[in-house]
Amino acid sequence: MTLRSASCALSIPLLCVTLAGCGDAVATTDTLGASTSSSSTTGEQPTTEVAPTTSTTTGETTTGGMTGTSDTSDTTTTSTSTSTSTSTTADTDTGVSATSTSTTDATSTTTTDASTTSTTDATSTTTGGVEVPETCLTADFPVKQPLCGAGGPACATLRDEVVSANKMFRNDMPAIALDGDCEPVVLYSEAVNGFHGFYAERVGPDTWTATPTPMVVATGSLASAPDDDTVFAMVDNGAFGTSLWRRFDGQWTQESSLVGMNHVRAAQLVHGSAGALHVGHVDSDFAVQYEVFDGAWAKQQMIADSEIHVRIALDAGDAARLTAWATSDATWKLHYFAPPGVAEVVTPLGSNVIERQHHDLALAGPEATPWVLLARKQADQVHHDIVLAHRTGPATWATETLAGEDSPADQTCGAPPAQAGLACEFDYRTYYPLALVAAEDEVRALYLAIRHQGTMLSQCEQNPPFCYWNEVAEERSSELRVAWPGSQPEEHQVAAVDVFTDRATARLDTAGQIHLTFYDDSNGLGFDPWVRYLMIGGA
């Protein structure tokens, strides 16, 4: 029997406040749940010297980073448990299969296509038809190249690759960093029969090498120190233990651990230009902590009663900015922190139940203006808007709606059926915020539009008498869209299709290309996703 691993650290519900519901404990889908699984653990078996932590505690349940109902967007494709995901844009390195299998050793690679490499100038190379910058060193940032969309080059998928084809129960989302050569590295985990971490490096077009980590990884975050050819990882072992690791010359060394009981997720570790490491996270009491490591830890507490997904960014002087959802005044609110300053409210969620807690933070412009991408509840408490917010002054924020669910064209089976044997056709979209990136003076928001199409049939019970809709068929398709400040929904560009997730981790390289990794659940069941990587840029 194989077990889907849960941990006390990652399965405790968020704090209950005096609300109609119990905060995120009612609707969060972000943590590990325990259940038996038929998933095979062959393929990428860890050989860690640390014993994996296994628990059967349930509560905050992650379904591979999915919200539980995978959806699809504007390009129609039938999705089943054996569906194939392919990129349809020009200049892609390849299309990838959601059902490809990997070998049973500790290394996972995908098929390499034929490509050529030629030097185009002193700062970039062309590989497989894709121009890639030669360096992503500290001095190369902030990014000065134009980003796709908003009057610049059209957005397209430049790479679409499988990092790991193993379909496994996973947690939250993978972490990504760029090395000094602007190539991505990815930290991901498998949560079956314990927690097992893997570190994957892209070694060529469609070719990734994945090796087990020596530490237990339930979730983790990556930060690159490209000038020193070093990568740092802050990892959560699934039992409140969080440790800092350094990877140099192919070897992992533990640098330190956080004091006390804590949670760490992807996108919560940043390497500063002065060499210190900055971490934004929550402790076991769900209080937001900001910690700096420069040989020793220094810690400040920001706010209590928070949700687990803290986001952090640094300005040019290494001053930290953080965001986190927290409960106050009988609702969830997104808060902003500039330590040691007091918290500011970016926007209320508009609900006491949070379902799409993933959000992202980026700093742009000479004054490092904070921008935030989030999902906010509509007044009906069912649908969501994709919202872009930016700070206009002390405790002052401007928000704009990039896209909203429940359009007039949506067809749903909302009203209860009057009798058995009725058919109802549905066709609607759901939206998820994925990632936010900023160049020197540009901001790009990536969100997912998933389209659901299918049929429901009515069924009735006699005691007590009631009728309900039962789904019998569904097709899902999706569009990964790129938006920018001031843009209208019809202007947003479709950069990728057949993406099925509700969150992603992103990095921007010095050519203005967005590197994205996520757990992709192409079968829509909310279990056993594979690990996928995209590079999005100008066509």
Any descriptors?
single chain; about 550 residues; mainly beta; five-stranded antiparallel beta sheet; four-stranded antiparallel beta sheet; 1 helix; 34 strands; about 0% helix
**Into which percentage range does the β-strand content fall?**
over 45%
Q: How many β-strand stretches?
A: 34
Helix content: under 10%
Q: What distance lies between the first and last C-alpha atoms, to the nearest angstrom?
A: 47 Å
Based on CA inertia axes, which overall geometry fits? globular
Main sheet specs? 5 strands, antiparallel
pLDDT average, as an integer?
A: 80
Low-confidence stretches: 7-124
**Count of individual helical segments:** 1
Radius of gyration: 22 Å
Q: Which structural category do the helix and sheet elements fall into?
A: mainly beta
Keywords: Signal
Signal peptide: 1-20
Biased composition (Low complexity): 33-129
Region (Disordered): 33-130
